[in-house]
C-alpha cells in the first residue's frame, strides 16, 4: 500500500465515521461505482465492531496517518528486540509492519502487528499473555508462527509473526492459471493446517483469502491463527462492559451464519469459511449475490439464502462496478482454470458441487465434522472414490424451500397441475418400455455377472492373497497396496449397490484391514495412526446404521465390536474407554447366545487384552490405573486364547495370539511386583514359539514375536537385579530385530520395536558401567524415534517414544559427565510429555512417564543447581502422589515415588546450612529432609509387606531405616550417597 493510497483511505474513513448509518451507506455506494476496492477496504475497517465510530475514534493506537517514514512515528522505533522498518499493510485489526531482529542474538525478519483494540488494550494484552504460549506451539509448515508479543510504551499490544512473502491464495491460483485439480491439492494443504490447529483446540475465526498467502514455491501459509480468540469479547467469559471497544474479528463475506448471528463459534465455523474460499477458488464467484456489498445485505445473504451450485454459478455474469475494469463472466473464469466454460462446468458438476455445498450448510452439525473430513472427501473425489457429501434428501430441501418462499410455492402449485397433464404421455412410454423388457433382462444379467466378477476379485485380493503374504518380511507396502486396491474396487461397487448389506459389510471389512496396515499397534503397520483412525471410522460409519435393523446378524455386530476395539487401541484414554465399553457389551451379549463361536471368542480376547493395557500397564498406550483389574482382564484373555489354541493347534494365528496373551499376563504380573511369576509365564510360551520357527523359518511375524518375548524376559531379569543374564538374553534379540528392520524398512511396528530395543540395551549397558556403548545405542534410538514420528507427526504414542529416547540419552550422557548436554536432552523429554499431559489429562500413562522424566531431570540438574533439581522433584511428587494413592498395588509407581522422596530429601539436606540452623533462618531445614525420608521408607516397607520388594532394593530399605533413626536421635540424618 502506497502512502498516497493510505492518505486517501484515511480521508474517506474520517468522512464515513462522521456520517449517520443511512448517509454512510449512500456515501459508500457512491464510492463503489468508481473505486470498489476502496469501498471494500473502508467497509472492512467499519465492520470490525457494531459501534464502529466509537471504535475508530477512541482507539488507543497512534493516530491514523499516511504511512510515509516522515509521518509514521512507528518507522524506526524499537519494539522489544525488533526494529521497525516499514509499513506492510493496514486492516481492521491494526497496522502490520516489517521489522528485523536488532539485538544481535540472531538475524531474522518478522511482521509486527499493532492490535487496534480501543480503550481496553490492557485487557487484550492480559488475554494475549495467557494465550501466547498455546499459540506458539503451532508448529506446522503451512501456518505462520506466532513468535512473540508485547506492548508499546503507549500500552498498545503488538504481535510478532513470521514474515511471509506471498500472494493471497486466490490471486496466486489465477496468476499461475492453476486448473481445478491443482487448486484442490493446494486447498487440501490448507485444510491440513486448519485441522492441525483444531486438534490443539485453536480456532481461526477469520479465515479468508487474505489470511492465506502462497509463497513463490507454491506453499500456502495461514496467517493470524488463534489471534481472533484473543481479540473477541465473546470469549472473555462475560459480556463486555459498556465502555469496551474490543474488536469482534470477522469478515462478513467469509463468516459462518453462527458468527454473523453472534452464536457459539466452533471448529465448524472454520469449515464453513473454508467452504467459501473453495467456492471462490473453483468458480471465481462468491457463494451469494452480494450486490452492493452492504453489511446488512451480506449478513442476510449468509444467514438466509442458499448458495447456487458451483457448476451452475460459473454461467453468472457480474459486471464491474468500476469503469474500464473487466467484470466476471464464464470466459474470464474458465480461462484461468479449465480453459473453456463447458469443460469447467463438467469438472465441477457432481461430487465437487456436493462437497462445497456440504461445507456451506447453514446448520453447523450438518457440515463436515472437521477440516480433515473435508480434505478427505476432496482426496476421495480426486481418486474417483465415493464421497461423504451426498445430495440432501428431497424432503429436507423442499421443506426449507417452502419456509423461505411461501408465496413462490403457492404460484408453483399451478405449474404442478400442468405437469400432471403429462402423465398420459408417461404411461404411453411405459408400454413401449415393456416391449424392451427381454433386452433389458439380458443386459441386467450381464451387468450382474460383471458386478460379481469384480466383487470376487476384490475379495480375493483382500482376503486370500493378502493373508498368504501377511507374515512375509518386507511385505508391508505390498499389503497396503493390496488392501487399497481391493477397497477401491469395493468403493466402486458400493456406489451401484448401496442397499446390498453384504457388500457394505465387505467394504467395512476392507476399511478395517486397511486401518490395521496403516497404524494398528498390534501388527506390521506404516505408522499412519491418523489414516488408521479415518479407516476405522469409515468402517463404523457403514456398520453403525446397519446394527439396529439387523439385531440377529451376529457377524455384523461382531465386526462393529472389532472396529471399536481397534479404534480404541490408537485413541486417547477417555475415548478408548468408551469404545472398549461398546465393544465389550456387544461381545458379551453375543457370547451369551453363541458360546461356541470361535471368531467371537477371538475378538473378545482382543478386547480383554486391550482393557488390560488400558487399566493395568503404565507403559501401555493409554493407562487409566488399576493394576489388579488389568491382571484380571489379562487372565480372562489368556483363558480364551488357551482354549482356542487347544481347538486349533496347527493354526499359526492361534499360537501367535496365545504367545501375546502370556505376555499381557506377564506384563501385569511385573507391574504388581510378581517378577518370578512374570518370568515363568514368559519362559513357558517361548519354547512353543521356537519350535514353530524351526518348522516355519520364513515366518517374519513369528520371529518378531520371539524377539519381543526375549526383550521382555531380559527386562524382568534386569528388574530383579540379574544384569549379566539380562544382557545375554537381550543381545540375540537386538541383532534379530535389526535384521528384521533391514528386511522390511517401511514396517513402522518393527522400527518402534528397534527403538525400544536400543533403549533397553543402552539402559542395561549403563547399569553395567559401559557408558560409551550405552550412549551409542541411545543415539540410535533417538534417530529411530524421530523417523517413526516423521511418518505421523500427530501420533501421540510416537511422541511418547521420542521422549523416552531423549531421556535415556540424557541419563547416559549424565553418567559420562556431559551434564549440560544431558540436561538439554532430558528437558526435551519433559517438555514433550508436559504438552501431551496437558492435552489429555485422563492419560495416566502420560502422567506417570512425566513424573519419571522429572525424576531423571532433577537428578541431572541437582549436580550443578540443587535448587533447579529440587523444583523438578517437587513437580514429580505432586504428579505421582495422587496416582499411587489411587492404585496402591502398582509396584512400579511406588518405586518411582520412593526415588522422588529420597532424591528430594537429599537435596533439601545439602541445602541446609548446619544442624543448628532454624527453619525460619533457612527454608531447607533438616526436618524437611526427615519428613521426605520417612515417606520414602513407608513405601519400601509397604512393598516389603506385600512381598514385592526385590533383592536389589533391600539396601535402599536399610539405608532408609538408618536415616530415619538419625532423624529421631539427632534430627540431622546422614546425607545419602547419590
Structure description:
The protein is mostly helical and 978 residues long. Among the domains are: 3-162, Phosphorylase Kinase, domain 1, CATH 3.30.200; 167-319 and 327-392, Orthogonal Bundle (Transferase(Phosphotransferase), domain 1), CATH 1.10.510; 453-593, Serine Threonine Protein Phosphatase 5, Tetratricopeptide repeat (Alpha Horseshoe); 845-969, Serine Threonine Protein Phosphatase 5, Tetratricopeptide repeat. Helix content is 65%, strand content 5%. The chain has 40 helices and 9 strands. The strands form 2 sheets. A 6-stranded antiparallel β-sheet has the order 1-2-3-4-6-5. Strands 7-8-9 form a 3-stranded antiparallel β-sheet. α31 packs antiparallel against α32. The longest helix is centred in the middle third of the chain and has 33 residues, at 437-469. It is globular, with a radius of gyration of 33 Å. The two termini are 65 Å apart. The model is unreliable at 48-69, 231-248, 392-428, 460-466, 468-474 and 616-625 (pLDDT under 50).
Structural class: mainly alpha
> What is the count of β-strands?
9
In spatial order, strands of the major sheet run 1-2-3-4-6-5
Any idea what the shape is? globular
Largest sheet: 6 strands, antiparallel
